[in-house]
Design a protein that fits this description.
about 300 residues; mainly alpha; two-stranded antiparallel ribbon; 11 helices; 6 strands; disordered C terminus
């Protein structure tokens, strides 16, 4: 059984992020997480500043004439709160103390800005198409986020985005094996086959194990919120690194990366369709080798 360090160091040319051991608490640019729930807010002793302070500073900068995306990146860099509940919705920016969803935090900050302050089309392009108004190289993005948050972002990229893309890639493999007849399968059966092929267990059993490990044994087995699904996906990623041999880790991750590249190409096609003048209706999805995927 390979541990995560062995797997990442032996994964060929796949550029894995730096992952901390389970017992560690890596520097992520966030404060330690309190035991939060919807009514508790954020423990003021654990963070220097609260969300309202960061958002107020962001709004002041934009009103003063600073480009909104530039001000947003500074707000994200300075933000310390790892998770919060707002109007009944859970915003889990940092998963397992190490994986940072920067777009979720960007959404939270932009949603809190006064109506009309930000250019809606630019905000939507950033959040939906992952196309910010200013293109940044990876070194520039690392500098703007700060190195701890940047590495936490890479953890999220590989641990959630690539892992979800691996699920789609495996679904495509199974469809090809069944000569395109997989749509005759129930969705639950196909999901079970995908998870069984990747992780060696059914999705329902894995979710039960994840919840047991995280004190959520009594959660509704038929329901999972978005924040929990993201955390579950990251848990699957870490489980895969810890249990599979390095060659298998590299191979599966490469499949996920390739699918993610295809999804990005589909997203770019959609972006071109939306911005180019045409009389044809916009198709909101693309088909990649028989798999219908949303690209926004």
């Amino acid at each position: 059984m390979a541990n995560s360090d062995q797997a990442t160091e032996s994964a060929g040319d796949v550029p894995f992020p730096r992952l901390a051991e389970r017992e560690g608490r890596p520097d992520t640019g966030f404060a330690a997480e309190a035991d939060l729930h919807e009514d508790s807010g954020v423990d003021a002793e654990l963070v220097e500043l609260g969300p309202d302070t960061y958002i107020a500073a962001f709004v002041t900068e934009v009103i003063g004439g600073r480009p909104w995306f530039d001000a947003l990146l500074d707000c994200i860099r300075d933000w310390e709160v790892p998770r919060e509940f707002v109007d009944g919705r859970e915003y889990a920016y940092l998963i397992e103390h190490e994986a940072f969803d920067w777009l979720l935090l960007a959404e939270r900050i932009c949603d809190a800005a006064p109506r009309g302050l930000l250019p809606l089309h630019e905000v939507e392009a950033m959040l939906v198409d992952e196309s910010p108004p200013v293109a940044l190289s990876e070194p520039e993005f690392q500098e703007r986020l700060g190195t701890p948050k940047y590495w936490a972002h890479l953890n999220f990229l590989y641990g959630v985005r690539v892992e979800q893309a691996l699920h789609l890639a495996m679904e495509r493999v199974l469809q090809k094996e069944r000569n395109g007849l997989s749509f005759s399968h129930q969705r639950e059966e196909l999901d079970a086959d995908v998870f069984g092929r990747i992780y060696g267990a059914r999705q329902s059993d894995l979710l039960r194990d994840y919840r047991a490990a995280n004190g959520r044994q009594h959660a509704d087995p038929e329901r999972i919120e978005h924040a929990e699904w993201q955390a579950f996906t990251y848990w699957l990623f870490r489980r895969r690194l810890e249990r599979q041999d390095p060659a298998r880790v590299a191979s599966d991750t490469r499949q996920g990366l390739d699918m993610l590249y295809e999804l990005e190409a589909a997203r770019q096609r959609r972006r071109r369709r939306r911005t180019a003048p045409t009389t044809q209706p916009s198709n909101e999805s693309d088909v990649i080798d028989g798999v219908l995927v949303g690209v926004g």
